[in-house]
Amino acid sequence: MFTVPAERFDELVQDALDELPKQLAGAIENVVVIVEDHAASRSLFGLYEGVPLTKRGPLSYSGAFPDRITIYQGTISEHCNSEAELVSQIRKTVIHEFAHHFGISDPRLEELGWA
User: Fold this and answer.
1) Mind listing the pLDDT tens digit for each residue in 82-105?
2) At the top level of CATH, which class does the domain 6-112 belong to?
3) CB atoms < 10 A from the CB of 61, how many?
């Protein structure tokens, strides 16, 4: 287990967001990213909740609340043994959850090595 203060973890999440390719980052729409300790009912590194871009339409999505990506600090920290591992897992989790925002499924992410 490797832990850092919440402020440092937030910085690492922001760093991962800043590293998203500009083309992808520019296509992100109506998403908020938050950090919580653990998921309520299961062991997750992250969770995407919302309507993927591939499922949105002008009539079905207007006035919607922002999609929500939650990164779980406690769960990630429990599976890492160094800051380098923490940085790597945060980056992988951020990419994985934003892939869901773009409509990429878990099976496809597994094929691509991002599951």
Assistant:
1) 999 999 999 999 999 999 888 888
2) alpha beta
3) 14
